[in-house]
Amino acid sequence: MTPNGHAALEEELKRRQSEERPRIIAAIAEARSHGDLSENAEYHAAKEAQSHNEGRIAELEGMLALAEVIDLTKLKGDTITFGATVKLVDEDTDEERTYQIVGDAEADVKSGKVSISSPIARALVGKKTGDQVEVSTPGGGKSYEILDVRFG
C-alpha cells in the first residue's frame, strides 16, 4: 500500500470512530425515545447504519493492521512494479492514459489508480518503456504501448 492510501484509510477510520459512531448512537437514542421499537422505522434505520459503520470500522482496522506501506520515493528503475506511474497509449484509438499501480484498498480508476491485482496492472508488471502489452478486458482485448514509467 502507498503512504497516501494508508493515510486515507486511517482518516476514514478516525472519521467513522469519532464522528459517525457518536452521530449514530445519538440517532438510536432519539429513535428510542419515540416509544414502540417494533414499528419504529427511524430506530431500525439507525441500527442498520450502526451495523454498517461498525463493520466498516472492523474492516479498516484489519486492513491497517495487515498493511505493508511501501515508500515510493525509494523505488526507481525502468521496470514496472507496484507504485509505478505508467503512461500508456491505446494502439487502436491513440488515446493516452496514465495509471498508478496501487494496493487493492486504494484503487480508484477514475483518479488513475489501478489495483495491483487488476488485469491491466498484471499485464504491465515487469514491462518497460516501449513495450507493447495486451490486456484482456470484458469488452475484448486492448493493445497498449508503454510511453513512460516513473516512481514517486
TrEMBL record:
UniProt-listed Pfam families: GreA_GreB, GreA_GreB_N
Keywords from the UniProt entry: DNA-binding, Transcription, Transcription regulation
GO molecular function: DNA binding; RNA polymerase binding
Composition bias type Basic and acidic residues, residue spans: 8-20
Family the UniProt entry places it in: Belongs to the GreA/GreB family.
Upper classification of the organism: Bacteria, Pseudomonadati, Pseudomonadota, Alphaproteobacteria, Rhodobacterales
Domain Transcription elongation factor GreA/GreB N-terminal span(s) in chain numbering: 1-69
The protein's name: Transcription elongation factor GreA
Renumbered residue ranges of the record's region Disordered: 1-20
Function noted in UniProt: Necessary for efficient RNA polymerase transcription elongation past template-encoded arresting sites. The arresting sites in DNA have the property of trapping a certain fraction of elongating RNA polymerases that pass through, resulting in locked ternary complexes. Cleavage of the nascent transcript by cleavage factors such as GreA or GreB allows the resumption of elongation from the new 3'terminus. GreA releases sequences of 2 to 3 nucleotides.
